[in-house]
Amino acid sequence: MNYVELTYTQVALAALLIVINGAISVALRLGLERSLLWASMRTVVQLLLVGLVLEWVFRLDRWYVVLSLATLMTLIAGVTAASRNERRYPGMWLNTVISIWASAWLVTAFALFVVLQGIEKWYQPQYAIPLLGMVLGNTLNGVSVGLSTFTESLVTRREQVETQLALGATRWEAAREPAQHAVRTGMIPIINSMLVVGVVSLPGMMTGQLISGMDPIEAVKYQIVIMFLIASATALGTVVIVMLSFLRLFNKDHQFAPRQLTP
Fold first, then answer.
1. Which long-range contacts (CB under 8 A, 24 or more apart) does 17-20 make?
2. 3-state SS class at 88
3. Mean model confidence pLDDT for the chain
4. Where in the sequence is the domain holding 183, given as residue range(s)?
5. Which residues contact 213 (CB under 8 A, 6 or more apart)?
6. Cα separation of 68 and 128, whole Å?
7. What average pLDDT does this structure show over 12-16?
8. Which one of 45, 60, 75 terminates a domain?
9. Closest among 47, 38, 4 to 18, alpha carbons compared
10. Is there a contact between 65 and 47 (Cβ–Cβ < 8 Å)?
11. Do 15 and 44 contact (CB within 8 A), yes or no?
12. Cα dist. 185→5, 80, 106, 180, 192 in Å?
């Protein structure tokens, strides 16, 4: 079974569907027409550029090229996660990059070296780049949500936190509830996805494999692995960013520094 090769005309026909979004925006006076147009243009340009880059990387098949591309993807993910947060503190950008890098690369390495033992080499672009990309994308969301929730919780619960510290609580005792809330919130989206995968939605990777002609059971096996990789990386990344933020905002003398959190 072979997949149907799409022409640029067929892609353009699919792009016409975005007109529906524009019509809804105009009808309800949402003012999203320019945003939709810009987002659509960026989608096309970015994906075409990625396609050209991946075609070159796949053809070259060198470990240092794959590693360089993975590093660039990780840096972009870290910066994006930090930029989504409404509050800033010194060192936040570095913390997001570290949390995403440590969790996503650790989980992806486990997949390449332990789970996918049949591949010829760990840097094989066909496996390394798509796996890391999917893990990074979902870890980014978890880190972003966890960071935003933690900083916002500290601001809204400032009096409670400072009161606990004044009464002799340690910095962890004072920050435990906001930290728990942040980690829980960061993990909820991936848990919800795992609950309905295959029943309500068919993930993109599995859909692509089915379209390309892979046996459905084999596609399911790959998707199960991906879901567990994503869940693990999301949990690790969320915990790491919350703990790194905690260490930045609470010093060793068990003092809270709310002034470091700026809008």
1. none
2. strand
3. 89
4. 62-260
5. 1, 2, 3
6. 12
7. 88
8. 60
9. 38
10. no
11. yes
12. 41, 19, 22, 8, 11
Q: Which two tokens stand for residue 196?
A: 């309905």
Chain centroid to Cα 73, Å, comes to: 11
Side chain identity, residue 85: N
**Which residues partner with 70 through β-bridges?**
none
Give the span between the Cα atoms of 87 and 93, in whole angstroms: 12
Query: What is the rounded distance in angstroms from the CA atom of residue 149 to the CA atom of residue 161?
Result: 15
pTM, rounded to two decimals: 0.84
* pLDDT tens-digit series, residues 37-78: 999 999 999 999 989 998 999 898 899 999 999 999 999 999
In this structure, the answer to whether residues 222 and 178 fall within a common structural domain is yes
For residue 256, the cross-strand partners are 250
| Of residues 224, 212, 47, the one with CA closest to residue 133 | 47
Task: Tell me: do 221 and 251 sit in the same domain.
Answer: yes
Question: What DSSP designation does 201 have?
Answer: B
Q: Which residues pair with 250 in a beta bridge?
A: 256
Confidence of residue 201 (pLDDT cuts 50, 70, 90): low
Measuring CA to CA, which residue among 150, 145, 152 is closest to residue 176?
Answer: 150
> Same domain, yes or no, for 256 and 129?
yes
CA dihedral 84, 105, 75, 129 (to 10 degrees): -100
Distance CA 208, CA 224 (A): 15
With beta carbons less than 8 A apart as the criterion, state whether 85 and 148 touch. Answer: yes
Strand partners, 231: none
Residues 165 and 209 in one domain: yes
